[in-house]
């Protein structure tokens, strides 16, 4: 699953990370639908927003941030230094490669060496995409890549990974220990630039690949799961839906919960700022255990923010950041997207 969108200006399909997470000024009253490259070129030439008449000087901090993001995404070529046999090369010219792709669309490419260890690959991925090696769950053909095989470090060759293969990366936000029973998932969003509007937080509950129930603002109960309803902070202009999960009360066959945010009135969620997630133990509400944020929600009606999945008897919170159609009035598209995630063995 790879998330992309088409820039309204250059009409080119690009990855989500190539678009700004917010408009170039706070007074722009529109979703950011032009890619970073188009916005920065337009500002440089016309000194205004590429989508509206708002003036934008080249000293504008957000414009400077866009330039820095582009520089990080597309660094200028430098001559490669010598590498060891198993160390990933940063020069890809003429090389066979493999791709590592996150569900949210972020990705990186690494030169292929059959003897490269999974440990070295995870370090490379950390440098490019951010997650620490212990937080990475790398999968190839629905099989998780372990760093060691008991007697030796595992390599790409051990998993029969071929050149130009695609590996999927799922980020483990938190691994829940046995003492934590009552977990709180706080899903929240910033108000649109004008007025107050709602997103809907829902949790879709599965046994394997079979949907067992849905908890949302109108159907707030499932054994072990409950929904807060609307909690709107007008002063801070932030809306919240909190979902409570009592792990030991869940039916024994339940092993996957998917937490989503979706738009009810709006055709997409691009006007809502920074859809986010906080996770904490109900006993210690001021002690945040993990968090995640999706800065740019693009054209989609919904985001699958994360999953709570039981793997080898341990509950883990995975960052998904997956865009989808569907909302609290029509869950079928969300079920289809989640079905694809489950089928690929991603969580």
The CATH C-level class name of the largest domain = Mainly Beta
Please write the string of helix (H) and strand (E) elements: EEHHEEHEEEEEEEEEEEEEEEH
If you compute it from the alpha carbons, what radius of gyration comes out, rounded to the nearest whole angstrom? 21 Å
CATH topology of the largest domain: Lipoxygenase-1
Beta strand %:
25-35%
Q: Level of helix content? A: 10-25%
Chain-averaged pLDDT: 85
CATH architectural type of the largest domain: Sandwich
Output the number of helix runs.
Answer: 4
Query: Which ranges are low-confidence, i.e. pLDDT below 50, for 5 or more consecutive residues?
Result: 77-86
Question: What is the CATH homology-level superfamily of the largest domain?
Answer: sav2460 like domains
Total DSSP E strands = 19
Protein name: Ubiquitin-like domain-containing protein
Organism: Pocillopora damicornis
InterPro entries: Stress/Tellurium_Resist, TerD, Ubiquitin-like_dom, Ubiquitin-like_domsf
Pfam families: TerD (PF02342), ubiquitin (PF00240)
């Amino acid at each position: 699953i790879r998330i992309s969108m088409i820039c309204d200006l250059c009409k080119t399909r690009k990855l989500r990370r190539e678009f700004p997470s917010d408009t170039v000024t706070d007074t722009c009253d529109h979703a950011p639908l032009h890619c970073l490259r188009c916005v920065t070129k337009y500002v440089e030439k016309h000194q205004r927003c590429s989508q509206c008449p708002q003036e934008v000087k080249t000293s504008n901090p957000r414009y400077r941030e866009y330039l820095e993001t582009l520089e990080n995404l597309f660094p200028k070529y430098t001559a490669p230094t010598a590498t060891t046999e198993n160390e990933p090369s940063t020069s890809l010219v003429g090389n066979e490669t493999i791709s590592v792709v996150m569900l949210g669309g972020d990705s990186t490419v690494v030169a292929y060496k059959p003897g490269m260890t999974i440990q070295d690959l995870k370090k490379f991925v950390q440098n490019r995409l951010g997650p620490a090696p212990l937080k990475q769950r790398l999968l190839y053909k629905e099989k998780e890549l372990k760093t060691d095989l008991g007697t030796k470090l595992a390599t790409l060759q051990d998993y029969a990974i071929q050149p130009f293969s695609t590996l999927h990366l799922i980020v483990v936000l938190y691994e829940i220990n046995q003492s934590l029973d009552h977990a709180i998932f706080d899903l929240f969003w910033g108000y649109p630039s004008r007025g107050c509007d709602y997103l809907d937080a829902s949790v879709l509950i599965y046994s394997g690949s079979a949907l067992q129930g849905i908890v949302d603002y109108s159907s707030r109960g499932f054994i072990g799961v409950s929904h807060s309803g609307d909690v709107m902070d007008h002063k801070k202009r932030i809306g919240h839906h909190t979902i409570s999960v009592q792990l030991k009360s869940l039916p024994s066959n339940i092993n996957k919960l998917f937490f989503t945010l979706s738009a009810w009135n709006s055709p997409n969620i691009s006007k809502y700022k920074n859809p986010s997630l906080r996770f904490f133990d109900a006993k210690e509400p001021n002690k945040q255990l993990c968090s995640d944020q999706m800065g740019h929600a693009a054209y989609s009606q919904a985001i699958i923010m994360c999953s709570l999945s039981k793997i080898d008897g341990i509950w883990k919170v995975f960052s998904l950041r997956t865009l989808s159609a569907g909302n609290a009035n029509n869950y079928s598209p969300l079920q289809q997207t989640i079905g694809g995630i489950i089928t690929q063995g991603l969580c």
